[in-house]
Design brief:
The protein has helices at about 125-135, 165-175, 185-190, and strands at about 30, 40-45, 50-55, 80, 90, 95-100, 110-115, 120. By secondary structure, it is of the alpha+beta class.
């Protein structure tokens, strides 16, 4: 006759000639006891016993709020100086904050926002950094030059590049293997990572 449902015990519970088939009891999330993403596991039936098996392996650490390399530290050694662009990248740890202003317009009302970890340049893009992009095969177009503009003014290489439009800023971000921050990322970083 037919036996009981198969369970993970090293016995042919359902009397079909197979022991522990179908990974009975398996697939349930568990903690391997490892660090970071390596703590993620799933139960698997092995040798008649349920064992917590890792579902993630160590990888290169990235700025994402996770311990990717399973060493007990989160987002360490991410960012740093990019020799090609001259940008020093900083990993901004994600979190939540109250975005907006009580004195602002209706679309600027104070509301809670959750921001994931992200990379941001430590400083505004300088004239010298932007020039590298202009001189790299025209990846970036020349900014406007005028009375209030820093482009083309002697002694202002370390000043922020200004007089660029959104498209020029986005082109620079793409050239630098980055992107423009979202409004919430910008405000979060400006408020010191939600610490106001």
């Amino acid at each position: 006759g037919m036996g009981a449902d198969e369970v993970c015990d090293g016995v042919d519970n359902d009397c079909d000639g197979e022991v522990d088939e179908g990974d009975p009891g398996g697939g349930v999330p568990c903690d391997t006891g490892g660090e970071g993403v390596c703590a993620n596991g799933a139960l698997a039936c092995r040798g008649g016993e349920l064992d917590c098996v890792a579902t993630s392996s160590p990888t290169v650490e990235t700025c994402n709020g996770l311990d990717d390399d399973c060493d007990g530290e989160t987002d360490e050694d991410t960012g740093g100086l990019d020799a090609r662009t001259g940008i020093e990248w900083v990993c901004i740890a994600g979190g939540s904050f109250e975005m907006g202003s009580a004195a602002g317009e209706a679309d600027e009302e104070v509301h809670p926002v959750e921001v994931p970890s992200f990379l941001m340049a430590r400083t505004e893009v300088t004239v010298a950094q932007y020039r590298r992009c202009v001189e790299d095969g025209g990846a970036c177009s020349v900014p406007d030059a005028g009375e209030a503009c820093n482009w083309g003014v002697e002694g202002r290489d370390d000043h922020p590049v200004n007089c660029v439009d959104w498209n020029q800023a986005a082109a620079y971000g793409a050239w630098a293997a980055g992107r423009l921050p979202s409004e919430s990322e910008w405000e979060y970083a400006a408020r010191s990572g939600g610490r106001d």
